[in-house]
Design goal:
By secondary structure, the chain is an alpha+beta fold. The chain has helices at about 1-20, 60-70, 80-95, 170-175, 190-195, 210-215, and strands spanning about 35-45, 50-60, 100-105, 105-110, 120-125, 125-140, 145-150, 155-160, 165-170, 175-180, 215-220. It contains 6 helices and 11 strands. Strands 1, 2, 5, 6, 8 and 9 form a 6-stranded mixed beta sheet that branches. A 5-stranded antiparallel beta sheet has the order 4-3-7-11-10, with no helix packed on it. The longest helix has 21 residues, at about 1-20. About 30% of the residues are buried.
Length: about 220
């Protein structure tokens, strides 16, 4: 029992370092920005002709995942170790408002502070976080388009969709909705600036560095 408590303590300490350093929950890099990468996959969630949330799947790169997977390597997927890991990761994501902006008609769409579900698993050598981002109030599908961006403000983590195939409309939405994915092309000077940032550097907040590299998803329904 004493050994388990010590392991649990060590695990939490490693997690704090991992999440602070590799998930950009602070503004510290190692070599350049971005230094960590997350491949995203999102499914729109609707009910009664209203958008109620986004189901997101984030696949972290192998380096980001390494310490996380090491601690849970021999643990069963339903063990307390995995549950604690999932709770720690999700808590930090929530601390950054899901790293997601949702706008409609120029106004922010609010969402709940707690996901309706979340889960952490492994995929080969990568950590995979799945969760549902619930809107605070269901939004009627028809009308003004939704503008959605998911990004790390500091651009320490590159969060991106590989292509449009990483976005999904359920059958009931596919009949009346369409979406587009726009990937920005920042000028060479901004790219050079991001690459110049070292481990103790942080871009000024008014530069909105991460936002300038963020993809934009537009959802339009009839």
């Amino acid at each position: 029992m004493l050994l388990y408590n010590k392991n649990e303590y060590d695990l939490m300490m490693k997690l704090r370092g991992l999440l602070a350093g590799l998930l950009s929950l602070c503004s510290v890099g190692v070599l350049a920005h971005p230094h960590s990468f997350i491949d995203m996959n999102t499914t729109f969630v609707a009910k009664d002709q209203k958008l109620i949330g986004l189901k997101m799947v984030w696949v972290m790169d192998e380096i980001t995942s390494a310490d996380l997977l090491y601690d849970a390597e021999n643990a069963k997927s339903d063990s307390e170790i995995w549950k604690k890991l999932a709770a720690e990761v999700m808590a930090n994501v929530l601390g950054q408002h899901y790293f997601t902006d949702i706008y409609r008609d120029g106004k922010p769409v609010k969402y709940l502070n707690l996901p309706t579900e979340y889960h952490l698993a492994r995929q080969g050598h990568k950590a995979v976080l799945e969760f549902v981002l619930p809107l605070a109030e269901p939004q009627t599908l028809a009308g003004k388009p939704f503008e959605i961006s998911t990004y790390d403000p500091t651009y320490f983590v590159d969060m991106a969709y590989q292509d449009k195939q990483a976005l999904h409309l359920p059958p009931d939405m596919a009949q009346r909705c369409k979406f587009s994915l726009v990937t920005p092309k920042p000028d060479s000077s901004l790219q050079a600036y991001a690459l110049s940032l070292d481990k103790n550097d942080a871009p000024p907040e008014d530069l909105a560095l991460g936002q300038q590299f963020a993809q934009r998803v537009t959802l339009q329904c009839q």
